Amino acid sequence: MNYFAHAFRFVGRARFVTGTALPDWLSVVNRRLRFRPPRLHQAAHHRDQNVSELVAGVKQHLEDDRRFHNCEAFSRCLVTVLQEVRPFLNGMGIPPVFLSHLLVEVLLDAQLVQSRRADVVRYYADLESVDPDWTEWATGEILGQPVSGLGHFIRLFCRERILLDYADNVHLLRRLNQVMRRLRLPDLSDSFQNALVASRPIVTAHAEELLRALDAPE
Questions:
Q1: What tens digit of pLDDT does each residue of 111-121 get?
Q2: DSSP string, 92-159
Q3: CA angle 17-32-135, nearest 5°?
Q4: Is 218 a domain residue?
Q5: Residue 217 lies in a domain
Q6: Is the pLDDT of residue 218 over 70?
Q7: Could you list the residue range(s) of the whole structural domain that residue 153 is in?
Q8: What is the pLDDT of residue 132?
Protein backbone atom coordinates (compact mmCIF):
# COMPACT_ATOMS: atom_id res chain seq x y z
CA MET A 1 0.00 0.00 0.00
CA ASN A 2 1.01 3.58 -0.56
CA TYR A 3 0.85 6.66 1.67
CA PHE A 4 -2.74 7.82 1.37
CA ALA A 5 -4.31 4.36 1.43
CA HIS A 6 -2.69 3.83 4.81
CA ALA A 7 -3.85 7.16 6.18
CA PHE A 8 -7.21 8.24 4.76
CA ARG A 9 -9.25 6.49 7.46
CA PHE A 10 -7.38 8.34 10.20
CA VAL A 11 -7.07 11.95 9.03
CA GLY A 12 -7.35 14.28 12.00
CA ARG A 13 -5.05 12.16 14.17
CA ALA A 14 -1.87 13.92 13.15
CA ARG A 15 0.74 11.79 14.91
CA PHE A 16 -1.03 8.56 14.01
CA VAL A 17 -1.17 9.66 10.36
CA THR A 18 2.53 10.54 10.53
CA GLY A 19 3.20 7.07 11.90
CA THR A 20 1.45 5.46 8.94
CA ALA A 21 3.99 7.16 6.64
CA LEU A 22 7.06 6.34 8.70
CA PRO A 23 7.91 2.86 7.33
CA ASP A 24 7.96 4.21 3.77
CA TRP A 25 9.91 7.30 4.75
CA LEU A 26 12.42 5.12 6.57
CA SER A 27 12.91 2.95 3.48
CA VAL A 28 14.00 6.07 1.59
CA VAL A 29 16.21 7.61 4.28
CA ASN A 30 17.88 4.40 5.47
CA ARG A 31 16.90 1.13 3.79
CA ARG A 32 18.83 -0.91 6.37
CA LEU A 33 16.54 0.14 9.21
CA ARG A 34 13.23 -1.60 9.92
CA PHE A 35 10.55 -1.35 12.58
CA ARG A 36 10.80 -4.62 14.50
CA PRO A 37 7.95 -5.96 16.69
CA PRO A 38 9.93 -6.03 19.97
CA ARG A 39 10.95 -2.38 19.64
CA LEU A 40 7.43 -1.37 18.61
CA HIS A 41 5.93 -3.18 21.57
CA GLN A 42 8.32 -1.45 23.94
CA ALA A 43 7.79 1.98 22.37
CA ALA A 44 4.00 1.56 22.50
CA HIS A 45 4.34 2.11 26.26
CA HIS A 46 6.66 5.10 25.94
CA ARG A 47 6.45 7.71 28.68
CA ASP A 48 5.51 10.27 26.01
CA GLN A 49 1.99 9.49 24.76
CA ASN A 50 2.76 11.30 21.51
CA VAL A 51 5.41 8.68 20.77
CA SER A 52 2.89 5.96 21.56
CA GLU A 53 0.48 7.49 19.04
CA LEU A 54 3.23 7.53 16.42
CA VAL A 55 3.91 3.86 17.14
CA ALA A 56 0.21 3.07 16.72
CA GLY A 57 0.37 4.54 13.23
CA VAL A 58 3.44 2.47 12.35
CA LYS A 59 1.71 -0.69 13.57
CA GLN A 60 -1.37 0.20 11.51
CA HIS A 61 0.82 0.50 8.42
CA LEU A 62 2.34 -2.93 8.99
CA GLU A 63 -1.04 -4.54 9.64
CA ASP A 64 -2.53 -2.88 6.55
CA ASP A 65 0.31 -4.21 4.41
CA ARG A 66 -0.17 -7.73 5.75
CA ARG A 67 -3.90 -7.73 4.99
CA PHE A 68 -3.57 -5.97 1.64
CA HIS A 69 -0.83 -8.14 0.21
CA ASN A 70 -2.51 -11.36 1.31
CA CYS A 71 -5.97 -10.62 -0.07
CA GLU A 72 -7.21 -12.33 -3.22
CA ALA A 73 -8.12 -9.03 -4.89
CA PHE A 74 -4.51 -7.88 -4.73
CA SER A 75 -3.26 -11.07 -6.35
CA ARG A 76 -5.79 -10.80 -9.18
CA CYS A 77 -5.10 -7.13 -9.72
CA LEU A 78 -1.34 -7.67 -9.68
CA VAL A 79 -1.49 -10.40 -12.33
CA THR A 80 -3.65 -8.27 -14.63
CA VAL A 81 -1.44 -5.19 -14.28
CA LEU A 82 1.62 -7.37 -14.83
CA GLN A 83 0.26 -8.30 -18.26
CA GLU A 84 0.15 -4.61 -19.18
CA VAL A 85 3.58 -3.81 -17.76
CA ARG A 86 5.68 -6.72 -19.00
CA PRO A 87 5.83 -5.74 -22.74
CA PHE A 88 7.53 -2.45 -21.85
CA LEU A 89 10.34 -4.03 -19.81
CA ASN A 90 12.05 -6.46 -22.18
CA GLY A 91 15.75 -6.46 -21.39
CA MET A 92 15.55 -3.40 -19.13
CA GLY A 93 16.57 -5.06 -15.89
CA ILE A 94 13.50 -3.86 -14.00
CA PRO A 95 11.71 -6.76 -12.25
CA PRO A 96 8.18 -6.81 -13.75
CA VAL A 97 6.50 -8.07 -10.57
CA PHE A 98 8.16 -5.34 -8.49
CA LEU A 99 6.98 -2.62 -10.88
CA SER A 100 3.47 -4.07 -11.16
CA HIS A 101 3.25 -4.23 -7.36
CA LEU A 102 4.33 -0.59 -7.14
CA LEU A 103 1.79 0.44 -9.77
CA VAL A 104 -1.13 -1.26 -8.03
CA GLU A 105 -0.33 0.64 -4.84
CA VAL A 106 0.30 4.01 -6.46
CA LEU A 107 -2.74 3.82 -8.74
CA LEU A 108 -4.94 2.88 -5.79
CA ASP A 109 -3.73 6.07 -4.12
CA ALA A 110 -4.49 7.95 -7.35
CA GLN A 111 -8.08 6.71 -7.24
CA LEU A 112 -8.44 7.60 -3.57
CA VAL A 113 -6.99 11.08 -4.08
CA GLN A 114 -9.50 11.71 -6.85
CA SER A 115 -12.46 10.65 -4.72
CA ARG A 116 -11.34 12.16 -1.39
CA ARG A 117 -9.98 15.61 -2.20
CA ALA A 118 -10.89 17.12 1.17
CA ASP A 119 -9.15 14.28 3.00
CA VAL A 120 -5.98 14.83 0.96
CA VAL A 121 -5.89 18.43 2.17
CA ARG A 122 -6.39 17.24 5.74
CA TYR A 123 -3.72 14.57 5.27
CA TYR A 124 -1.05 17.08 4.38
CA ALA A 125 -2.26 19.40 7.13
CA ASP A 126 -1.79 16.55 9.62
CA LEU A 127 1.75 15.87 8.41
CA GLU A 128 2.72 19.53 8.48
CA SER A 129 1.35 19.98 12.01
CA VAL A 130 3.91 17.52 13.45
CA ASP A 131 7.41 18.94 13.81
CA PRO A 132 9.71 16.92 11.50
CA ASP A 133 12.59 17.25 13.95
CA TRP A 134 10.39 15.77 16.68
CA THR A 135 9.44 12.91 14.34
CA GLU A 136 13.11 12.23 13.65
CA TRP A 137 13.82 12.16 17.39
CA ALA A 138 10.80 9.97 18.16
CA THR A 139 11.72 7.53 15.38
CA GLY A 140 15.15 7.22 16.95
CA GLU A 141 13.48 6.47 20.27
CA ILE A 142 11.43 3.71 18.65
CA LEU A 143 14.35 2.17 16.78
CA GLY A 144 16.90 2.61 19.54
CA GLN A 145 19.25 4.53 17.24
CA PRO A 146 19.24 7.92 15.48
CA VAL A 147 17.84 8.35 11.97
CA SER A 148 19.84 11.14 10.38
CA GLY A 149 18.10 13.08 7.62
CA LEU A 150 14.53 11.99 8.35
CA GLY A 151 13.35 15.46 9.35
CA HIS A 152 14.76 16.94 6.15
CA PHE A 153 13.06 14.28 4.04
CA ILE A 154 9.68 14.87 5.74
CA ARG A 155 9.89 18.56 4.85
CA LEU A 156 10.69 17.62 1.26
CA PHE A 157 7.80 15.13 1.15
CA CYS A 158 5.32 17.74 2.39
CA ARG A 159 6.60 20.35 -0.04
CA GLU A 160 6.54 18.08 -3.09
CA ARG A 161 2.90 16.96 -2.68
CA ILE A 162 3.57 13.81 -4.69
CA LEU A 163 0.02 12.50 -4.24
CA LEU A 164 -1.25 15.29 -6.47
CA ASP A 165 0.98 14.08 -9.32
CA TYR A 166 -0.59 10.64 -9.51
CA ALA A 167 -3.57 11.73 -11.63
CA ASP A 168 -1.42 12.79 -14.59
CA ASN A 169 0.52 10.12 -16.47
CA VAL A 170 3.43 12.42 -17.35
CA HIS A 171 3.88 13.50 -13.74
CA LEU A 172 3.36 9.97 -12.43
CA LEU A 173 6.01 8.63 -14.80
CA ARG A 174 8.43 11.22 -13.44
CA ARG A 175 7.71 10.08 -9.89
CA LEU A 176 8.15 6.43 -10.85
CA ASN A 177 11.51 7.23 -12.39
CA GLN A 178 12.58 8.89 -9.15
CA VAL A 179 11.96 5.52 -7.50
CA MET A 180 13.87 3.73 -10.25
CA ARG A 181 16.89 5.99 -9.79
CA ARG A 182 16.83 5.60 -6.02
CA LEU A 183 16.97 1.84 -6.51
CA ARG A 184 19.61 2.16 -9.25
CA LEU A 185 17.28 0.79 -11.91
CA PRO A 186 16.92 2.12 -15.47
CA ASP A 187 14.46 4.90 -16.24
CA LEU A 188 11.13 3.94 -17.73
CA SER A 189 10.65 5.35 -21.23
CA ASP A 190 7.90 7.80 -22.20
CA SER A 191 6.09 4.91 -23.88
CA PHE A 192 5.43 3.44 -20.43
CA GLN A 193 2.62 5.97 -20.15
CA ASN A 194 0.62 3.52 -22.26
CA ALA A 195 0.96 0.95 -19.48
CA LEU A 196 -0.28 3.55 -17.01
CA VAL A 197 -3.31 4.29 -19.19
CA ALA A 198 -4.14 0.57 -19.40
CA SER A 199 -3.52 -0.11 -15.70
CA ARG A 200 -5.61 2.69 -14.17
CA PRO A 201 -9.04 1.15 -14.90
CA ILE A 202 -7.82 -2.24 -13.70
CA VAL A 203 -6.90 -0.87 -10.28
CA THR A 204 -10.04 1.27 -10.12
CA ALA A 205 -12.18 -1.81 -10.78
CA HIS A 206 -10.52 -3.61 -7.84
CA ALA A 207 -10.30 -0.59 -5.50
CA GLU A 208 -13.40 -1.25 -3.40
CA GLU A 209 -12.44 -4.89 -2.82
CA LEU A 210 -8.83 -3.99 -2.04
CA LEU A 211 -9.87 -1.44 0.57
CA ARG A 212 -12.48 -3.73 2.06
CA ALA A 213 -9.71 -6.20 2.86
CA LEU A 214 -8.22 -3.73 5.35
CA ASP A 215 -11.15 -4.07 7.75
CA ALA A 216 -12.35 -7.57 6.93
CA PRO A 217 -12.64 -9.93 9.94
CA GLU A 218 -10.08 -12.72 10.02
A1: 999 999 999 99
A2: T---HHHHHHHHHHHHHHHHHHHH-HHHHHHHHHHHHHS-HHHHHHHHHHHHTS--TTHHHHHHHHHH
A3: 30
A4: no
A5: no
A6: no
A7: 3-212
A8: 98
